[in-house]
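Structure in, sequence out. Go:
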């Protein structure tokens, strides 16, 4: 499945719709440490919570993501939040 790039005003609040479109039950929310202080990941978290989608957040990556940076998330290293769903 090819990734979709969603952008523009209000796009961040669409996470719950896309999760529903893909029938997602568990989401790995990957971000870099600079995005969290901006509040963007929190908005995505709220959107997923509204949709009752369980998620785990991981910020152990750089702004130019490399495949090997995501691998630690599989073993839960660097996880900063896990929803209770």
């Amino acid at each position: 499945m090819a990734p979709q790039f969603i952008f523009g005003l209000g796009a961040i609040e669409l996470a719950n719709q896309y999760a529903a479109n893909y029938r997602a039950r568990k989401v790995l929310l990957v971000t870099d440490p600079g995005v969290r202080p901006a509040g963007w990941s929190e908005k995505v978290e709220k959107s997923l919570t509204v949709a009752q989608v369980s998620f785990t957040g991981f910020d152990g990556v750089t702004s130019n993501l490399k495949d090997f940076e995501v691998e630690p998330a599989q073993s839960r290293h660097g996880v900063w939040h896990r929803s209770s769903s």
